[in-house]
Amino acid sequence: MLCEKCGKNTATTHIHSVVNGVAREMHLCAECAANEGIGTPDSGFNSMLASMFGDALSLKSQLNEVRCKCCGSTFSDISKSGKAGCPECYKTFYNEFLPYIKRVHGSVKHIGKSIGENQVKTEKNIDTIDALKEKLARLVSEEKFEEAASVRDKIREMEAQK
Amino acid sequence: MSCWYNNHAPCGDIAVSTRIRLARNINGFPFPARMSDEQRLEVNRKIKQVIESENFAPLSLKYIDMKDVPVNERFSMLERHIASREFVLNSDNKAIVLSEDETVSIMIGEEDHIRIQVILPGFQLEKAYEIADEIDNLLCKSLDIAFDDTLGFITECPTNLGTGLRASVMFHLPVSESRGEILALTKSVNKVGFTIRGMYGEGSDAAGSLYQISNQITLGISEKNAVDNLRVISEQLISKERQLQKNLNLIKTEDLCMRALGTLKYARILSSAELIKLIGRVKLGINTGVIKDDINPIKILIEGQPYMLMKTYGNMTEDERDISRAEMVRNALG
Asked: Cβ contact (<8 Å) for B191 and A23?
């Protein structure tokens, strides 16, 4: 199989992901995978996580060396280990984290249980467009096409109302 | 003491156990990997206070400092699936909170400040999530839990952001495995954001035909949807393996399972690897009605692990353990 990015080299990296509830497969050669910031399988878990942060991010933070006020981490520390130093790091380096989080989860918006002012709220209403798209992908993978069609119509309806 | 694997297991012929894990952290402290000894003690103290408060009284949870737990007992927690390897390897400054039957275990100071785990026998996803959610609600009421409207629950590793939920089911899939269907299964569960791995053995070799399926994505998918998706996949797996087991050649299955039972009943030396292999066949024998004895194969499997044996019989060399294991199994099989 040829790399779907460059179309020249043999695809050696196969990625399965779910983006906004839609399952996706990518088949890339080593070079294109590296350009996408995806590590090779033998690079170890932490370094694979770290490589997903991408070069631009660590370069930028090395120049500025902003430190988290709570734990003193710089973003280059975080991108080396692939892990944050403390909860505050996500606020300090929010913009740096975002592309990486999107790459891992395919989404940067939390859906589900939430807390605010020490009150726990469970999201009862799951009929958001994203949740329905997720349900649609699941129904299609289960080959429940009739149910899938009605969910698809509901998504269209909700999108038209936007 | 009654443990999770002693209790009744719904769909226990195929599903061995169901686990829910929620990762939580407290604002104002670095994550455990970067905490000072003082900060660790402070976090432990805060959580202990909450666990021992009136709100938690109905749950009868017990807070245990790991420094008070002997090494054999620590590693046996890993073998009973109530603590992770990372947690028990270096656990001097850590703590664990357990329910009496160990279905609830809260690891304090693992990768995240708090890891709530609920493990139930068989296939009980909704119930396990309900229990974990109740504990989480109580913790969130009393502690300043790190949460962001966009990123959800904040965790050390960005791969757990969002719900911080890992839902998993462990299956015994001997026939799907022998028909070479695990690879196809791996591909199809990957497509919907789940992963499958062997419980014992290394690499692709899953000793005892035990496999665990869990969700990978935690951000942008609600707890309910993640649990629902895993439920649907699990139901398909269970029904497929049941169908395959039903259509097995009876005399060949009987021979395979009875030979395994015979070895386990009469062996004098039994390695851990041999136990895992043979007990899986005994389980298949029970499922197919070939073996009619009242046996709990999962209990034998777990209690035959090295540290579980040493917890009971004291420190032993590997050779001594193999002899004790054979004795324990003979006793269990009557």
From this structure: yes
Task: Name which of B64, B121, B74, B139 is nearest B98 in CA terms.
Answer: B64
SS3 A117: coil
Predicted TM-score (pTM) of the model is 0.80
Tell me the CB-side half-sphere exposure of residue B221, using CA atoms within 13 A.
31
Determine, for residues A134 and B221 on separate chains, whether the beta-carbon distance falls below 8 Å.
yes
Structure tokens at B97: 């909170």
Running DSSP on this structure, what letter comes out for residue B6?
A: G
Is B140 in Cβ contact with A131 (below 8 Å)? no
Cβ–Cβ of B151/A108 closer than 8 Å? yes
| B21-30, B83-92, B161-170: segment of lowest average pLDDT | B83-92
Q: What is the DSSP string of B33-77?
A: GG--HHHHHHHHHHHHHHHTSGGGGGG--EEEEGGGS-HHHHHHH
pLDDT tens-digit map of B222-260 = 999 999 999 999 999 999 999 999 999 999 999 999 999
User: How far B211 CA lies from chain A's nearest CA (Å)?
Assistant: 20
How far apart, in whole angstroms, are the C-alpha atoms of residue A55 and residue A23?
Answer: 27
Going by C-beta distance under 8 Å and a sequence separation of 6 or more, which residues neighbour residue A141?
A: A23, B188, B191, B192
Where do we find the tokens 């851990």? B272
**A10 in contact with B, Cβ within 8 Å:** no
What are the residues whose beta carbons fall under 8 Å from the beta carbon of B145, sequence distance 6 or more? A115, B24, B25, B26, B27, B139, B153
Dihedral class, residue B20 (left if φ above 0, else alpha if ψ from -120 to 50, else beta) = beta
Which residues partner with B82 through β-bridges?
none
Please write the tens of the pLDDT for every residue from B17-31: 999 999 999 999 999
* CB of B47 closer than 8 Å to CB of B108: yes
Longest dimension (CA), chain A: 55
Q: Is A127 on the interface with B (CB under 8 A)?
A: no
